[in-house]
Write a structure and sequence with these properties.
The chain is of the alpha/beta class. It folds into 3 domains: about 40 residues; about 180 residues, Periplasmic binding protein-like II (D-Maltodextrin-Binding Protein, domain 2); about 80 residues, 3-Layer(aba) Sandwich (D-Maltodextrin-Binding Protein, domain 2). Helices cover about 35% and strands about 30% of the residues. β1, α3 and β2 form a beta-alpha-beta unit. Pathway: Amino-acid biosynthesis; L-phenylalanine biosynthesis; phenylpyruvate from prephenate: step 1/1. It is an enzyme of class 4 (lyase). GO terms for molecular function: prephenate dehydratase activity.
């Protein structure tokens, strides 16, 4: 949490007394000021963390695991997370960027591609998603609620066990749990925490289809990330001419830099014009990446680094 007001108030009070006490008191006052500023500088800031809510979603689970002591703010959309994060330097935002079953989270990508967007990626986090089927117990469910991604991932598992079940899309896994709690003969694909929050029973855990279900998140902030990053992400646009993308990517091949992901998105209002998002293995503190970034800046119409950042080991849900 930021505490800018307290040191200033203390300094003002100290400055009133020594005016008539001579140099010694002024030196003492200055020494106290220096100690206050030094203590404030050394006190770690607990950032406020915005995440895609509501509570008891997988985003909330990752936020709590990564920041157990911080204030967590649930937001209703990815756009709201990013707007909240942009407004203050001591705020961070956690948003999903890719799911191993559903692909890229395009809302996140589109917001990162905006030209005036001031944020950097601070970390990449991941969650191995293990879904729970939660419900009232007793008779088999007639309706299963969930977010579209879990429904798609588990559709065959559900239909195999409950052939006549109706699948209904909810805004989040948390909302799905609350809908199921209010609906007779209903269940939800959600977190185990959502079952505890809504009073539902865990009917089956984990709901697996034999396919790894990994969701990756990025932690965003206004400051450049700390040194020691393992991956670098770029946003860029290219001239409308043959071979421009090939020429851009060739730089990274030459420097033996591995391309982790690439996404192209249309520029609103400009037909057949695209902007790209790429993630690369390596840090901009290293020679190969440093050389590559200098070269690609000359080949792009626009090229902005979102920073070199740490990649954390996946959490388990």
């Amino acid at each position: 949490m930021r505490r800018p007001a307290q040191p200033e108030q203390g300094i003002d009070c100290l400055s009133l007394a020594p005016r008539e006490r001579g140099l010694r008191d002024r030196e003492f006052s200055q020494r106290i000021k220096d100690e206050i500023f030094s203590a404030e500088k050394e006190t770690p800031t607990l950032h406020t963390i915005a995440y895609l809510g509501p509570e008891h979603t997988f985003s909330h689970l990752v936020a709590r695991r990564r920041f157990p002591q911080n204030r967590l703010i649930p937001c209703v959309s990815i756009a709201e997370v990013i707007a909240f994060t942009e407004s203050e330097e001591d705020r961070l935002g956690l948003v999903p960027i890719e799911n191993s079953s559903g692909g890229m989270i395009l809302e996140t990508v589109d917001l990162l591609l905006e030209e005036e967007q001031p944020l950097f990626i601070q970390e990449e986090l991941a969650l191995r998603v293990h879904l729970a089927l939660i419900g009232h117990g007793g008779e088999p469910p007639q309706i299963v609620f969930s977010h579209w991604a879990p429904l798609g991932h588990c559709r065959r598992w559900i239909e195999k066990r409950f052939p006549k079940v109706e699948l209904r899309v909810a805004a989040s896994t948390s909302e799905a749990a609350w809908l199921a709690a209010k609906t007779p003969r209903a269940a939800a694909l959600a977190t185990r925490e959502a079952a505890a929050a809504t009073g539902l029973s865990i009917l089956h855990y984990p709901v697996e289809e034999g396919i790894v279900n990994l969701t990756q998140f990025v932690l965003l902030g206004r400051k450049k990330p700390s040194p020691g990053g393992r991956e670098t992400s770029l946003v860029f646009s290219l001239p409308q001419e043959p071979g421009s993308l090939c020429s851009f990517l060739e730089v990274f091949r030459t420097e033996q830099i591995n391309l982790k992901r690439i996404v192209s998105r249309p520029v609103p209002g400009q037909p057949n014009t695209y902007v790209f998002f790429v993630s690369l293995e390596g840090s901009d503190e290293e020679g190969p990446m440093e050389r590559a970034l200098r070269k690609v800046e000359q080949r792009a119409l626009r090229c902005r680094s979102l920073g070199s950042y740490l990649v954390q080991a996946p959490y388990e849900s």
